[in-house]
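Hi W.,

Here's what went into the run:
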Amino acid sequence: MSAATAQRRVIVVGGGLGGLWATLAIAGGGQKVLLFSLFEVMRSHSVCAQGGINAVLDAKGQRDSIDQHIHDTLKGGSWLANQPPVKSLCEAAPSLIRTFERMGVTFSRTPEGLLDQRLFGGVKHRRTCFAGASTGQQLMHGVDQQVRRLEAEGRVQKLEWWEFLGLVKDADGACRGVVAMDLRSLEVQAFRADAVVLATGGLGQLYAPQTTCSTNSTGAAASRVYQQGARFANAEFFQFHPTAMLGEDKTRLMSEAARGEGGRVWVPKDPADRREPGRILEAERWYFLEDWYPAYGNTVPRDIASRAIWRVCRELGQGVGGGDRVYLDLTHLDRGFVESRLGAILSIYRKFAGTDPLDAPMEIFPAAHYAMGGLWVDFEHDPASGGVTPGSPRNHATSIPGLYACGECDYGYHGANRLGANSLLSASYSGRVAGEAVLSCLAGIERGADDLPAAPFQDEVARQQAINRELMTGQGSESPFQLHDALGALMTDRVGVVRDNASLDRAIAALAELEGRAAHMDLREASPWANQTLAHARQVQDMIRLARVMAASARARDECRGAHYKPEFELPLPSAGDADGPAWQHYRERWRAENARWLKTTVAEHGIDGPRIDFEPVDLSVLAPDRPRDYR
Amino acid sequence: MSAIAGVQRLALRVAGFDRAGHGEASSRTAAAAERRDSSASRSVELQIRRQDTPDASPYWQCFRVATKPGDNVVSVLRALRLDPVTVDGERVDPVAFEHNCMEEVCGACAMLIDGRPKPACSTLLAELGSRIRLEPLPKFPVVRDLMVDRARLAESLERVQAWVRLDGPWDIHERAPRISQRQWAADYLYSRCMSCGICLAACPQFEDAPAGERGFLGPAALAQVRLLNAHPLGRYDKTERLHAIMAEGGLSDCGNAQNCVRVCPKDIPLTTAIGELGRQTTVQALKDLFGG
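Here's what came out:
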């Protein structure tokens, strides 16, 4: 067999939307896939996505266009995203929707039986395809079924209940396999592969419990490869979703679709007003988003909405009952319409809050939601199309040869702030692109991983076993669960919606201290079988190291851009009006100067003393940042 | 209608899975609201059936846990991890249990709560008494404590070929087929299955150790057959799926106890699916006999 046609083996880590799409692309291309998942594939956090997936179909009489989708996405991200990948993403969206549809995904329909679309934040067109309010779950079903079929045909092998611990690199520094732990037997084992795709999702657990993320969204896997040399980009850009339920164990997401379908955000004008919301007259309510942003109203992008809610509650003291909460109101809408379009979130709210959003407004506050930053990944710019070169082995390649990343764990598409319903799109698209890139990469491999010497695999297994042994027999006193709580509180408090350098300095010091404490844990559990404390302890150590990257990146960037907000460096927009007047001219000059200084990708590399932060240019070849973001 | 409902409820009590009907649901909502508003915390006793390994004997342990307003079974199990000391003052290993999303969409945390199979995350303490019994989801092999192995769920989905046979996951440049809003509404109900296994735990015909070659598929996989047989492309393989459920362990094993539909946390009309499949298999059997 020649190298080009040899059967190769690829490891995909993560069974969410990105990992399953990568698996489909790679196994569909004739290569064998080992699919690793922390639990049964199907239970990944992708199922929690609710509102929809963006694709320009232009079937709503609004003259929507792919160019407009590109523009909205780039502007929504404060121009920080590399533009060729965003261009290709938006161009591919309709084809992904058509493919999902063929898989059997139950997209909601118009009366004519065609795909329905609704409005989402940061846009003016109805561009979001959806399946009720459980779109992530439905898309997952589609790809999960396709992967199950490939598994039945022997082209995919699932390794469920295995946790990724580290990469194995050859003498040239290329990734040639992984070391993983069986979460039942705790066995640590090396697996050889000719390429590895990391699709391990987000890291909202760094902010627990004030997060919409599942308990498995720890970022531990990304942290592990970062510590092994992979670059991590734009870590300071982390999205706080404006509309999460209040909750002590978790702040559950209430989809942006609630606002897209007509939901209104308000507080009583008099913060001392303790009446039931239904008894407060229209004239006594303050619809502050509609007031501050008349052009976009309740569907401003998430960073804008979160800061507005923050300001209302924390700075103006106007939160409901004086607390950290505002109303998200659906009660003025048709009950049947809301039930059919948003049923899944109504059910969550009813079950966990005990009240019905059809009868009384929901109470919400921003919560940690989505990492725009992630593992740095490459792309090949195609000058002919302006997008990325299809099938290039550079696409979605991390800085470690042979290691690819896709989905929320990469940093690819969302710049400084992600638009709603672009995440299911980027997870699916990036999985497919990473899979295609892996196929190209395999074609260039001359020596398969099976022919490599055993030493690097044995060394990495030994290193990982030593970490386990240290934790299992350690003489420390710290509880991993309490350390996780301390981390969540620290990050929420100091690396949150609003940031300042003094506070970030304290966070950096506190994280270093926390990392030290995490080296002295007492698991208080010695079970050699399905020991969940051991797995969690390891995750907590790696979460703290990743938190240091976020804090250091946030400290390094002295400006306001998207989700990264340091009021000290804010350039306030002049009041709307004469765009050619002196106020605007002056503002635009300062805005351009700020872009010259800060419109750059933050890149962190692991160092012994902590993260080393550097900056690299952004590819702005599609659309020059022409105007500041203004949603008023 | 009421007579039928009465018979069904009786059958359910016999089976031990009396489930929240509509009336109960609203009282539960009211109880939850009351719970949320009351700032006073209380403590509950958790009686947990534990098992150290798949082959070990199960045993019971009792814990007293302080609770907060709004707590659910997952949140108290998480809190218990911090300091797992039994009521007898014995320091023990944390209780192993599964949970991910904590909002009833991933299906991981299903367990037996006071004898009824439920998602632990959406079971609020306000709905339960001050003594709560937790056991692993029955019908599945115990891994450890409240963790079970639900591999049979995936096997069932494979047996019924719960997928559309695509030529490939690439674009074929053709617009999506039209589906009426009415059909969408009916199909969507089935696509909300989260593979939690609760319907299987409640099903008298779904056995933990099937006697024959192949045990009963169970309602979850059957509902997916209903869903895929209705899809414009999925229906091309309808015959194969129907043959799969006409074989041993298939549709005819359903004993019509109707427990599944009562316990499903997502209100999936599982018995409606089974009824529709009964008609489809009858037609298929005639086609098989006479050709067509």
